[in-house]
Amino acid sequence: MDLEIKKNLVSNWFKTLQDSFCDDIIKIEKNKTKFKSTCWERNSKKNEGGGEHRILQNGKVFEKVGVNFSKVYGKFPKEFRKNIPGANKDPRFWASGISVVMHMNNPLIPAMHFNTRYICTTHDWFGGGMDVTPSKMDKTEKKEFHKILKKMCDRHNKNFYKKYKKWCDEYFYLPHRKEARGIGGIFFDYKKNNFEKDFKFVRDVGVTFQLIFNKIIKKKKERKWTSKDKEKQYVKRGRYAEFNLLYDRGTKFGLKTGGNTEGILMSLPPLAKWK
After folding, report:
1. Largest alpha-carbon pair distance within the chain?
2. pLDDT, tens digit, for every residue of 151-194?
3. pLDDT digits 0-9 by tens, 58-98
4. 8 A C-beta contact, residue 204 and residue 155
5. 258: how many CB neighbours lie within 10 A of its CB?
6. What is the pLDDT of residues 195-243, one digit of tens each?
7. One CATH from 3.40.1500.10, 3.40.50.1240, 2.60.120.20, 3.10.450.50 for 3-267
8. Domain ranges of the chain
């Protein structure tokens, strides 16, 4: 398949998914809170693509949720090329992705994160995943979350769940705290074996995240919580911010490739505490 066709298929899917996620979020908020949408360009002087970040804040259910789409192209900075497969041969790149971060009002509902991306250099590959970060452990929810993920992964390859869960556990870990960010999920990168199969898997990851966040929120949005629960959530959010600023690849990639700063940092919680 021609590379340009691949790029169009993938970026169109990511944009469709952005719309679908936002529609669901607005329905959860019963149409009482709207997204603020901002379109941006990577380079104001020449066409190097851009994207749209949408942020909803101070809703009844969502304290802050960001749903970002990007499609950018250009050349990697020299200091960044050695870290990207294929960029040493040719610094030109094309990348598209969607990312979602949800910070909830109710501290009994976990923070949730999802992203998928497609990057082209002299190679082309998919990456992404999803994970959940509760401030109060719910063993039943954890078990159900991983059960859904395993079922989804098994539809594509029986080895995926174990492999991508392990990768997620290793990736979303704070070495300086010696603790995991949350209860895990799946994480994958440099997925480039077969475009049709890989793209089918990436689409399934997006649809499954949509199912998961709707299910968790519907189950817990009316549950009563205490000031102690909220305090725990604020401290957990501090850990979340630490990871995203110190270790997250997506944050570093976006900032070093001229991405939109506000969109990149939308993952940060609206309020957090350190103890």
Report:
1. 56
2. 999 999 999 999 999 999 999 999 999 999 999 999 999 999 89
3. 999 999 999 999 999 999 888 888 888 888 889 999 999 99
4. yes
5. 17
6. 999 999 999 999 999 999 999 999 999 999 999 999 999 999 999 999 9
7. 3.40.1500.10
8. 3-267
Report if pTM > 0.85.
yes
Q: Is there a catalytic annotation at residue 176?
A: no
Candidates 110, 71, 17; CA nearest to 259 is 71
pLDDT digits (tens, 9 = 90+) for 108-140: 999 999 999 999 999 999 999 999 999 999 999
The token pair at 48 is: 């190097």
| DSSP code string of 164-179 | HHHHHHHHSEETTTTE
**Alpha carbon distance 112, 132 (integer Å):** 5
* Cβ atoms of 52 and 39 closer than 8 Å: yes
Catalytic residue among 53, 113, 123, 176: 113
* Residue 52, C-beta contacts closer than 8 angstroms, at least 6 positions apart: 18, 37, 38, 39, 40, 68, 69
Q: Is 54 within 8 Å of 36 (Cβ atoms)?
A: yes
CA nearest neighbour of 57 among 274, 271, 270, 272: 270
Cα separation, 215 vs 20, whole angstroms = 16
265-269: long-range contacts, CB 8 A cutoff, minimum separation 24? 266/53, 266/55, 266/64, 266/66, 266/68, 266/101, 267/66, 267/99, 267/101, 267/113, 267/240, 268/240, 268/241, 268/244, 269/63, 269/64, 269/103, 269/111, 269/237, 269/240, 269/241
